[in-house]
Specification:
6 helices, Aminopeptidase, 2 domains, six-stranded mixed sheet, about 210 residues, alpha+beta
Length: about 210
């Protein structure tokens, strides 16, 4: 098993995953900001600076299938209580490999700290950059363990025209040769379809504690 969360993520971006052995790996937080859980197929990674013995005890106390324990509401609640953190939702974690050349639509880089999507990104990411298209916004920034993360926003009046897919694809062109990650709420089927159509692959689920 890799020694750091960044190692785990870089391997997953290449399609190399932790062993599907039903176990949970506990790793140090990559930064004071980021703690949480990533559940891959039959193997979870908890990243926290808490005592790993506490993590394993709390997982046993969920009294559920070991494969589901890290995303069980009892464990996540105990994790938040223990760390004084909160979480919004459990996301589907996806990744798209880099694409050559320029993006497939006209984009203008902007500075708009008041846009809701930009404000949310700056709370969770470093080195945030923002591009505007006609009817939408693309945000790229450094998130968990320094990975490059994308978020998009499409105006209601231009939905269902492929703009979300085009923005998600553009992120893969703008990543400077790096894979681009996206966290999408499991219930946001519209966004999931857009990112999958743009070539992003689901690799697991993630609960990020803030």
């Amino acid at each position: 098993m890799a020694e750091t969360l960044r190692d785990v993520l870089e391997a997953a971006a290449r399609g190399v995953f932790p062993p599907a052995d039903g176990r949970t790996t506990v790793l140090p937080q990559p930064s004071p900001r980021d703690a949480g859980v990533i559940a891959f197929t039959a193997h979870s990674v908890v990243f926290t600076d808490e005592d790993p013995r506490w993590v394993r005890r709390a997982l046993r106390e969920t009294d559920c299938d070991a494969l589901a324990a890290t995303m069980n509401a009892r464990f996540l609640t105990a994790f938040m209580d223990r760390t004084g953190r909160t979480t919004d939702t459990v996301d589907v974690l996806t990744v798209g490999s880099a694409l050559p050349g320029g993006p497939p639509l006209a984009l203008t880089e902007i500075a708009d700290p008041d846009h809701p999507r930009v404000a949310a990104s700056r709370r969770r990411r470093d080195d945030v950059r923002v591009w505007a298209a006609d009817g939408g916004v693309l945000v790229l920034g450094r998130g968990v363990a320094g990975r490059l993360e994308a978020a998009v926003e499409v105006d209601e009046g231009v939905r269902h025209r492929g703009l979300g897919r085009a923005l998600a694809t553009a992120a893969r062109h703008l990543g400077g040769g790096e894979p681009v990650w996206a966290q999408i709420a499991a219930g946001n089927a519209r966004s999931l379809r857009a990112f999958q159509a743009a070539g992003y692959r689901p690799v697991g689920s993630e609960a990020l504690l803030r």
